[in-house]
Specification:
This is LysM domain-containing protein. GO terms for molecular function: lytic endotransglycosylase activity. Belongs to the transglycosylase Slt family. The chain has 4 domains: 186 residues, no CATH class; 67 residues, no CATH class; 72 residues, LysM domain (Membrane-bound Lytic Murein Transglycosylase D, Chain A, Roll), CATH 3.10.350.10; 55 residues, LysM domain (Membrane-bound Lytic Murein Transglycosylase D, Chain A). By secondary structure, it is mainly alpha-helical.
């Protein structure tokens, strides 16, 4: 599972809620009246930014007013997250308008991903996310963590407001374009004897529209009826609660324990890149408030051997679906269904989800989770025949030196490839990438690699995409089983393994 599958889940949830009462509609279409405990009223009460008479703001107001369906979808998504965001903002004494910033950033899509590689509700790029403590690895991307990313975003905004002497419009502009760009624009205006407020600065086009969009949302939420809109209430109460789960857990298992759809669980916990949580944490999950008690009871009663039901198999040269299915005790049909494969074609370097969930049956029943996990450890921890590469799952007693020796690679190279200190401590269950795989060999030595999915846009071609992400065209084609004559279509998803150092131009 990756962000694209979580995005599919969000789309499923969007479709399910289309028939529900509208949160935002055109005035006169029967939206419910405001309730005293309405979260929108709470947001309005905390407004502290000054409305400004600027054409750029009115332009954005007019756009939002013409698209009530867009606002409705956005706030239905945001209904899950808004109470937490507002509570955190109030605790810091920040303007409550900032609770509307995810409307501008991501339309409250927790897996939104931009061309600049920004991700999550608050659209952190990798470097800024790391600067504010958002861990990013194979299992987990903190930029998509509802709690961690909200804390990081508010920390960043507070720091920017302090930098720009309490001017929140400049802080918001800097959140979009970077503090250095805003500082340089201010310096240019000072040198020219011009005002240094946001609307007099020469900033990138996106930023010149970004702040007006936030002010437009403020104006619309402040008085929807003035713009021909009606807002139904959002309950002014927590939507979710955090539950400590005590270690790594399969997300499908968690959904079943909470008696919750997997789409809803993923919408609240979008930071996990695969169907299992990070063995090194965080060891908590968010669940709707009304599922708290049953989930806590279920976690307490869950046998340790049933916590993890899925593993991933890295396809190697010579692998077939039949051979992989036999190795893990599941059926080919289950492998195809779990990985959305339309045929039997697989390629080296591809990750296949192997599940012990009902439906992955052999003989009289589902393959036990413990058996699948043991098979995964044996398969993933053994060196590849005929060369280096693959993944190693850390077992008791393992060190970087012993892993490097076992796989015949340089220890320093192994450490750099995984972003680890050479004398660091490893955790049992931790996944170590072994340099030499298609993925690793395609990237510069010592770089930190990130798996990402790119959605093809109109006008894209393979060469342009490769140039944009600073990867080799041949690698892009190999990763996606394409050739020079392949045609890509808008909406098609391409997988890429990006060296962050190369992407940043280092």
């Amino acid at each position: 599972m990756g962000p694209e599958q979580i995005e599919d889940a969000i789309e499923v949830l969007d479709a399910r809620t289309e028939s529900q009462r509208p949160l935002v509609s055109e005035l006169g279409e029967g939206a419910a009246g405001q309730a005293p405990d309405d979260l929108f009223e709470r947001i309005r009460a905390g407004f502290s930014l000054t409305d400004v008479d600027q054409a750029a703001v009115q332009y954005e107001v007019d756009w939002f007013a013409r698209h009530p369906a867009y606002l409705d979808r956005t706030f239905k998504r945001g209904e899950r997250y808004l109470h937490h965001i507002v509570t955190e903002i109030e605790a810091r004494g920040m303007p409550s308008e900032l609770a509307l910033l995810p409307v501008v950033e991501s339309a409250f899509n927790p897996v939104a991903y931009s061309r600049a590689r920004a991700s999550g509700l608050w659209q952190f790029i990798p470097a800024t996310g790391l600067r504010y403590g958002l861990k990013q690895n194979w299992y987990y991307d903190g930029r998509r963590d509802v709690l961690a990313a909200t804390t990081a975003a508010l920390d960043y905004l507070e720091a920017l407001a302090k930098m720009f002497e309490g001017d929140w419009l400049l802080a918001v502009a800097a959140y979009n374009t970077g503090e250095a760009n805003v500082a340089r624009a201010i310096k240019r205006n000072l040198a020219a004897g011009k005002p240094t407020d946001f609307f007099h600065l020469q900033l990138p086009r996106e930023t010149r529209a970004y702040v007006p969009k936030l002010l437009a949302m403020r104006r619309i939420v402040a008085d929807p009826a003035a713009h021909g809109l009606a807002f139904s209430s959002i309950a002014n109460q927590p939507y979710f609660v955090k539950v400590e789960v005590g270690g790594q857990i399969d997300l499908q298992v968690a959904a079943e324990l909470a008696e919750l759809s997997k789409e809803e669980l993923l919408a609240l916990n979008p930071a996990f890149n695969h169907w299992v949580t990070d063995p090194e944490g965080p060891h908590h999950l968010l669940v709707p408030v009304d599922r708290h008690d049953r989930f806590v009871r279920g976690i307490a009663a869950l046998p340790p051997g049933e916590r993890v039901r899925v593993v991933y198999h890295r396809v190697r040269a010579g692998d077939t679906l039949g051979a992989i299915a036999n190795r893990y005790g599941v059926t080919v049909a289950a492998l195809r269904a779990g990985n959305k494969l339309h045929g039997t074609l697989i390629h080296p370097g591809q990750d296949l989800l192997v599940t012990a969930a009902p439906g992955a049956r052999t003989g009289g029943g589902a393959a036990p989770a413990a058996a699948i996990h043991a098979a995964a450890l044996a398969a993933e921890s053994s060196p590849r025949a005929g060369g280096k590469g693959g993944r190693h799952i850390v077992q008791p007693g393992d060190t970087l030196w012993s892993i490097a020796r076992r796989h015949g690679v340089n220890m320093d190279h192994l450490a750099r490839s995984n972003g680890l200190p050479t004398h660091g401590t490893l955790s049992v269950g931790q996944v170590i990438s072994i340099p030499g795989t298609t993925r690793m060999a395609a990237l510069s030595a010592g770089g930190e690699t990130r798996s990402t999915t790119y959605v093809v846009r109109r006008g894209d071609n393979l060469s342009r995409i490769a140039d944009q992400f600073r990867i080799r065209l041949s690698d892009l084609m190999n990763w996606n089983s394409l050739h020079s004559d392949s045609i890509i279509m808008p909406g098609q998803r391409l997988v890429m393994y990006i060296d962050e150092r190369r992407r940043a131009g280092i």
